[in-house]
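Sample pair:
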Amino acid sequence: MKRSRCRRRTAPLDASIAGQAAAVVGYGRADEGPATQKRRGAVIVQATSERDITYGPDPAMTCDGDSGGPLLLTIDNEELVVGVTSRGDAACADHGVAIRLDAAPPSFFEAPW
């Protein structure tokens, strides 16, 4: 199985990503299959703020248990991790919110875990 190589975007994002297709990955609740199954789905970026990226279904959506999973955008023909799923609407139908990685301080990525 070929593994995709994903890197974190270090250049700041701007409002131009609104309307772009994106992907989410997670192990959360779904209509079909076990909750422990990893899924990848298509979403669309709705808006950005200083710290967040809001996305909507296209047709997938994140739900309970998907927090911490990546939000991926293809930029310059390379799939990059641009955010981490944080929250969304209670029905898992309208929107999700990811924390922007380009807004995190460099020390966040250097901390020992």
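The chain has one domain: 7-103.
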